[in-house]
Amino acid sequence: MSLRLRLALLSSFLTLLALALLVFASGLALQRSLLNDLDEELRVQAKVVLDAIREDGELNQIAEDALTTARGSSAAWVYQNNQLIAGAGKMDAPEPLDSDFLVSKLPNLNQSVADWRVSSLRSGDLLVQVGRPLLSSQRVLENYIQNSALYGFLAAILVGLLSVFLVARSTAPLDQLATRVAHPTDDQPIPHTKLKDEIGVLAQALEQGRLSRLAQRQQETRFLADAAHELRTPVSAMLVALEVRLGQPSEAVQDRATLEKVAFQARHLRDLAQNLLALTRAERAMGFETVDLLEVAGEAVDLLAPLAIQKNLEIACFGISAHLQGDGILLARAVENLIANSIKFTDSGSIEIEVGQTWLEVRDTGIGISLEAQTQMLEPFHREGNRDGSGLGLAVVQAVVQAHGGKLEMNSQLGKGTRVRLVFPQI
């Protein structure tokens, strides 16, 4: 069953239910109104009969006439000391009309007894009961219910047809959205995003997804282009150095220089490949385990200390054991990249690595980073200055931190150094 048909049936059902409740409520109100009018008329008739008995000792013509109205004829019984002394009107009425009232001490009472509506009035030793059959009122009520049911059924059919039309018109944008999603083209915007209803909310969500996919696709395209460029540069340098050397007589000194160039480019390729793998691994969210951040930092310092010593830089690692749930390989790569960047951009002074309970911080006395460049350096393949590197270092660090639910904080001043802190969620 289609959504449109379900909505139309639901609308018709609710309409029928509302009409049924309306008929029921209005029927009760009509019944109460009819009884109130009848009670008022019977009370007047009872008072006329009682007055006639008091004045003449019997029912006169005025009392007889008062028992017949346009609404119908009433029956009246008059009692003195609970003994029947007179009667008038519809003589086929039961006697007494309300036997319970005869033994009660109530001054007056209106109630239904069997199929009669009875008004009882007491004055001294006199008691008058006037009643009228409820048949006429019941017929009025039945006619009302029958007419209401008929017109209500016709109204429900009309509302159902109208609901089908309105639902079809209201859900038409859903068909267009379904067609658009079934044939995705990220170059074309999603329709109906300006609607203010639920369809507009859905269309806006689909449009956001389209824009996100488009941005991701553009980012992937740019990333692949930059990666191809970065890979081509060292490979070309290696090939040129080897081809030039192969075209010359072999000499040990020149061979060593050539091999050193090739080794340098090979290391560059290795770092580039490791960073690309780290980015991929971070996006796939590899399995986490308990990792000591201080131990990871210490191993990174042991690995990179020779590079710092070559530049006469002091390097130190200190802090406390900080256990967190993470990927040891990714965390090691992120810390190595931070330390390697500090060594690369520091010409004199020191590099400090400190570990806290849920954070790791790398501080250096290097050349610093401008405020404008700090955000750009977190993008893949962005390099600052003319220093060697792939431009993936901080991008990998950012990806690793995000994969662990943490954040990267950077504070740097030109000519004074840089402080980068990685903050991780507590276990």
Percentage beta strand = 15-25%
Tell me the distance between the termini: 50 Å
Under the CATH scheme, which class of the largest domain?
A: Alpha Beta
The secondary structure category is: alpha+beta
Question: Secondary-structure element sequence?
Answer: HHEEEEHEEEHHHEHEEHEEHHEE
- Identify the CATH homologous superfamily of the largest domain: Histidine kinase-like ATPase, C-terminal domain
Work out the radius of gyration: 49 Å
Looking across the biggest beta sheet, what order are the strands in?
Answer: 4-3-7-6-5
The helical percent reads: 55-70%
Oligomeric composition of the shown chains: single chain
Number of strands: 14
CATH arch. level architecture of the largest domain: 2-Layer Sandwich
* CATH topology type of the largest domain: Heat Shock Protein 90
Average pLDDT, all residues: 78
Model regions low in confidence, pLDDT < 50 over at least 5 residues = none
Provide a count of the helices.
10
Number of domains: 3
Shape: rod-shaped
Largest sheet: 5 strands, antiparallel
Describe this structure in words.
This protein is α+β, with helices and mostly antiparallel strands and 427 residues long. The chain folds into 3 domains: 137 residues, 3-Layer(aba) Sandwich (Profilin-like); 100 residues, Orthogonal Bundle (Helix Hairpins); 139 residues, Heat Shock Protein 90. 58% of the residues lie in helices and 19% in strands. The chain contains 10 helices and 14 strands. The chain has a 5-stranded antiparallel sheet with strand order 4-3-7-6-5. Helix 6 packs parallel to helix 10. The longest helix is centred in the first third of the chain and has 54 residues. The chain is rod-shaped, with a radius of gyration of 49 Å. 26% of the residues are buried. The model has no long low-confidence stretch (mean pLDDT 78).
